[in-house]
Amino acid sequence: MSVRLTRRRLPPLACVALVTLLAGCASHPAEHFYTVSVQSAASDPGTQVQRILVSPIVIPALIDRPQLVVRTGGHEISVLENHRWGEPLSVDLTRALVSDLRRLRPTLDIVAAQTPPDRGSEQVLEVAISELISGPGPSTSLQASWDLHDRARKCSDERSFGALIPTQEGDSAIPAAYAEAMSRLAEAIAKTIPTNLVCASN
Question: Phi/psi at 10 (nearest 5 deg)?
């Protein structure tokens, strides 16, 4: 007498569901998080009592989002869902700019300000970025302006700056390009800050 062994088969719909679940787990892309700024030491202005407060940088709505954004054509952009900023981009860019300015002008007390200044002796630096985006092609475009003024706005120095930053291929190269853009912007701003912290009238 022979005994026939049979395997229990899953219903067809159950098989399809299992295969779909396994495929989804295997193909889910990993998320990447980036910063523009890097960790830096606090400035030591010594006996300098006046300071420059850097207001939060104003950025275009196009890039004011958690995801990285690239321009893929003249009228087309791409939002990189799996490549994200680790914190609000304006905060990150402001920190990067402050760090670069401290490096370039170490004798000045340069700090990021989240609230309006409360001391009349302070100078305020307001920066607005009208364009900061990579692509199309291996470059990142920067267009920015700034206004250095005293709290009472009795004097003000307004300038603008633009640059094309060479950018390596790959989405992960974008944060480095943004960091270079902030460094170039900081160099342009640093050259216009008066040594005695008294802004020049236009």
Answer: -75, 145
Residues of the chain with pLDDT under 50: 3, 5-7, 10, 18, 48, 120, 199, 202
Contact present, 184 and 175 (Cβ < 8 Å): no
132 with 196: CB under 8 angstroms? Answer: no
Pick from 50, 45, 92: which is nearest to 68 by CA? 92
Does an H or E element contain 187, and which? helix 174-190
Reduce the DSSP state of residue 16 to 3 states and report it: helix
pLDDT at 40: 58
Residue 79 token pair: 């939002």
Q: Which domains does the chain have, with CATH numbers?
A: 48-190 (3.40.50.10610)
Tokens linked to 185? 């912007």
Residues paired with 142 in a beta bridge = 132, 163
Q: How far apart are the first and last CA of the chain?
A: 107
- Give strand ranges (E) for the chain: 32-34, 51-54, 67-71, 77-85, 109-112, 123-134, 139-150, 156-166
